Amino acid sequence: YVNGITTAISIAVGAYHSCAVLADGTARCWGLNALGELGNGTYDSSPTPVAVSNLSAVRDLAAGDYHTCATLADGTASCYNNAGQLGDGTTSVALVPRDVLEGGSPLQNAVSISAGQASTCTAIRGGAPRCWGSNSNGQLGDGTHTTALTAVAVHGMGEADAIALGGRSTCARNVSQSLYACWGKNDYGQSGEGLYGDATMPDFTILLDDLGFGRPANPSIAAGGSPPIWGHTCAVTSGGLVYCWGQNASGQLGNGTFGESTVPVMVQLPSWRARQVVAGIDHTCALLENGNVYCWGENQDRQLADGTTTDRSTPVLSFTGAVQLASTHKHTCAVRASGLAFCWGPNAAGELGTGVASAPPVSAVQVVGLTDIAAIAAGARATCALRADGTVRCWGINIDGRLGDGTTTDSLVPVEPIGLTNVSAIAMDWYNGCAISSGSVRCWGANSAGQIGDGGACGTECPTPVLLQNLSNVVDVAPSWQSVCALRVYGDVWCVSVHGDVGPSAPYRTLSFHS
Fold it and tell me: N or C end of the chain, less CB within 10 A?
């Protein structure tokens, strides 16, 4: 037994000292006291527990190498020791607890706390964790290596319900995502993502699906930019986080900067998990599990629907209540569970489906005349919708037959592509549309590279949907600038595109894998 302690409710062990929280909310510590880590106003080490001075209503304790911290019932935090790990704005030794500060005021809403070698972190109710102290290996998670004398927010974490500091590395579990992330020192792979090298922000590539946290229903990836050069790419991880990489002059990577990145960077989304990501030329949007749509990047044509024309390097709320998104060029559309669709961005060709061509609206506008939309797809200044009855409607520019109605005449109202029935899925790229019907694929629009798969029969444009020959049991289709690829139920992928010097081609197998 520890001498004199009979009502302990929790305990913390540092490098050379230990502490306990008692049932009455006070704390006792014992062991080495070379730098005041026992908190009793002296430098005297003690082989038996001594009362921590001026500390009551203690909720949680954390002991580091030479410091100790506590969170209190009122949500504040107190620490004692040196080197900035106290969070009181100084590096002076404290022999009794001092308030942890954030922005010049006592830290609020602190819950659980953890201490490392010379750093401290605490979970915060309703917000991202806060950390302070030494940051030599990025263990504070704020994206820097700068020591923090007061509390700083962990970058992109969201509310955590558990947090733990090792010597110079930190891990936490996000509340809403039920997902773990780590940051800081990583010379032995302690961050758990399978790589080496320190991380100054949470690394959510630790995807603990095997522990039952699950995957999104449809893992999502999207490439933005203008053909033939795709500027940026974004992906939703199996834990529902969004990472982007590539060009970033308009902030389309969503990480708070305007500098390009050759490696994936995490988008600063709220703590809800993402279900889908879509990308335009220089903007990106993500659909979260709660139905909110956040967009970021270029906004000169109101691509972000936030009421401004200001580019954004971090996500802004653009729409609510969505179940599916679509974007390829500069406009974005969303479908609600009610079957209504809404679009935002430029509307010079009537691509928003309002029945008129107009300047970009301030916020999302409803597609008129369609109330039973099951899915939507967006191309370059054109849009198509899949209706609940398995038919398709398209509207907008039709310069190369991308509306599929047998003409090249633009339309401000929905028109029906010819010969499409029993459609289960649609997809669009810049100049093409495709639909899956009874396991077969029909495509329409630009055909300069033979991407329609008709063997060249309809020339450089196909305004009427054409059947991709000898291709059945298709479950997904993806048109691109000069190609169309289809995934079959067997796990094999077939593509049509210009093939060497032989001209427009029929579908050919590109790869196979187990689905």
Answer: N
